Amino acid sequence: MPPSECVHTNEQLLHWLALRLTPGLGARKTALLLERFGSPEAIFRASTSELEASGLAGSVARSLASGCAFEDAAEQQQRLKATGTQVVAFTDVLYPPQLRQIYDPPPLLFVQGHVELLDTVMVALVGSRRPSTYGMVAAEHLAIDLAKAGVTVASGMAKGIDTAAHLGALKAGGGTCAVFGCGLDIIYPAENRKLAGRIAAEGLLLSEFPLGTPAHPQNFPIRNRIVSGLSDGVVVVEGVQYSGSLITARLALDQNKEVFAVPGNITSKLSFGPNLLLKQGAQLVQSAADILDGLSWETRSKLARQAELPLEEGAGQEPGPMAAIASQVLSFLTVDTPMHLDTLLEHLLDCSPSEVIATLFELELRGQVRQLPGRSYVKVWYE
């Protein structure tokens, strides 16, 4: 179905909510119904036999045909209004394109905060709920540098690494997206209530679960596919052998997303997850520059356009900070001898890695710099 504008009449929203609240109807079946019938209204107009012919079990088809979920949908609609929660449907232009591509995209997203963050480059930072001091420091440091580079940091607002990631992004004045495993009106864990309020004001809260949905344990693996699905890459900081962060990393691989891992102490159980991912081919992370450089060309191009870096200053204007960094980068690079990114960063000690990476992105787009295999760069030669 082609995307539509994110403007619902009360009647349209009621049908979307009733579809979401129909017992036994999951995300995959909902997507197939929308593909066949075109809209929630058309689905509810279909007969029981038509719905069964679409592959639904008899009980689910009868529930849809009877419209038994409309009373709950009307109640949900009132709760959404009272809490200032917005709904983004699968067919809305605001629905993230990368999330639409996963195997079982949620039909509805419930959001609070800056919905425009759905159209930004996102990187997920995930890890243990009981991390070491090293893990907390690493997560916050990476989140700060990613946010400074214009990346929206996504995570699950759990204790530990998730909390450090969200706080780091907020500390840098950047965007962050917290994906819930329950309704947005239920803060879990309760100790993160203040953090949730801050993210609602400065970032984005998101859930596929309707308001009032409790934080059932089985919801969190379901939530993890949204964390990875929204993101252009997933970074695992710490995690034990059977951790949720490893589940998120596997989901990211299934979704053809980049997977990164922060190496850890081999004597620590918390290092099992990221070190295993590294053995299996994940990209090693020592700084945010490793993450930015490891993203796809399309993602890096979007990030550069998103940043709108003022490398070319107009007449009579003072050179901007990015223009000054670009000038330094071009002065160090040559046309015939590749320079490794780490070497370039050593020459630019007054600049953060994220600023240098962002500048290199823009210079690549302008055709002034070319990236070579092995994270090396040369200046483009002009006659």
Would you tell me which CATH topology of the largest domain applies? Rossmann fold
Query: Gap between N and C termini, in Å?
Result: 49 Å
Report the portion of residues in β strands. 5-15%
Strands ordered across the widest β-sheet: 1-2-6-5-4-3-7-8-9
Give the name of the CATH architecture of the largest domain: 3-Layer(aba) Sandwich
> How many strand units?
12
SSE string, helices as H and strands as E: HHHHHHEHEEHEHEHEHEHEHEHHHEHHEE
Please state the overall shape, judged from the principal axes of the Cα atoms.
elongated
CATH domain class of the largest domain? Alpha Beta
The residue ranges in which pLDDT falls below 50 over 5 or more consecutive positions are 309-318
Helix content: 40-55%
| Number of discrete helical segments | 18
Largest sheet: 9 strands, mixed
Q: Supply Rg.
A: 23 Å
Kindly name the structural category.
Answer: alpha/beta
**Nearest-integer average pLDDT:** 90
Number of domains: 3
